[in-house]
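Reopening this ticket.

The earlier resolution said the output was attached, but the attachment link was broken on my side. Pasting everything inline this time so it's all in one place.
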Amino acid sequence: MKYPCYTFLLLVSAVGAHAQQSFSLSDCIQYSLSNHATIKVEENNWLIAKEKEKQALATYLPQINSSATFVDNIKLQTTVIPAGIVSPAEVEVPLGTQFNTNAAIDFTQTIFDKSKIASIKANKPYQQLTELQKQQNTENVAYNAAVAYFQLLILQEQQKTLQNNKVEYEAALKTLSSQVKLGVVLQKDYDRVLVSLNSTNYQIEDGVAKENVAINTLKNAIGMPLNEPLFIKVDENFEAYAILDISSDYDPANSLELKMQDQQIKLQSMDVKAKKGSFLPVLTAFGKFGSQSLSNDFNQAFSSWAGYSYIGLSANFPLFNGLKRKSVVAEAKLNLENDLKNHQITKDNLTLRYQNSAVSLRTAYSSYKSSKENMQLAKKLFEVTNYQYQKGMASFTDFMNDDNAYKNTQNNYLNSLFNLMLSKLNYEKSKGSLLSYLNNLK
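Inline output:
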């Protein structure tokens, strides 16, 4: 009986460990690319573009239809044959038969239509545009996941620092309480540490609330249901995110935004050609093959069939429609001109964004290095002051001042680290290398 129980405990332990699996940055990004709703939306948009290609091509393929009709002429129309032709008096003659049955197949085939040709050619840049939009969405999803992950990572590191501070303050209060009773330390010194402990407790409580918000933000960013548990791996290797690597060979033509505008210009050029094509004639072949049965007897309405067929060519020459076509072409040309202007504007903006992100990254890196050095220096000063205080060579005021200074530099270091992480993401995104950068962080 002990062995089944032991096996059951192992299974429960394994299930619990799986349920609380910690996510790394790479795990979060991979999860988001598999589960975020916008990924499926953009995939559907790409498939829609493929279907539109088939629809455009279908307009230039044969259009074949079949039809069948049955008519019961309850009262036939009549015509009058003037007197003297078949009889001395006028004669009323019914037209047709009472029962008419008809079955036919007809077809049309476009031989030349410039507008349709331009629409078919426009499918290639349209598909490339949807592919680029899909890539852009993938990049945005990965970016949002990384920002949310870094935010949660820093908050958890701040919580760890605050918890350590709390333990130190609680230990200090125990020592000071005894020293106050002995008259070695003043009550106000004890109260100063108590104030610091209360402030730390508030910061911990506030940090827990912010951490919960950050967890839900990360869940939303990666497409995870809010009611599911999420834990991230404790990452001590912060130096991996604190690398200053700025390239000087930036080319805005490699950005997704400019590539998308290139395809938009191609689409608009095709639209101009399609509008101009409306001035040209449309040539169409057509034909019909059918059979009909005519009878005044319902019993014979479906038995006496006679076939018929015809084929032909149709040419439609547009002559005048109130200058509408000319106005439509002019509008399309103006839209194309706007797209070309916007292309240059976007190119300039992308270059400016890259340069600004590079400056922000350098500034963030300098701030990070300075904050790290200050933290290390403040730690050394505090250790010296703490030693001197223990030996009675430094005042309690000096001890508290250096302690607070050290803790402030810890907070400044973490804030500068997050700012550097965010600046690095923005830089890589502006350069068009965000996904490769995130993959290298695995």
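Reporter confirms the inline version is readable. The beta strands are 22-23, 63-72, 78-81, 91-94, 99-112, 231-232, 282-295, 305-316. Residues 80 and 92 are 5 Å apart (CA to CA).
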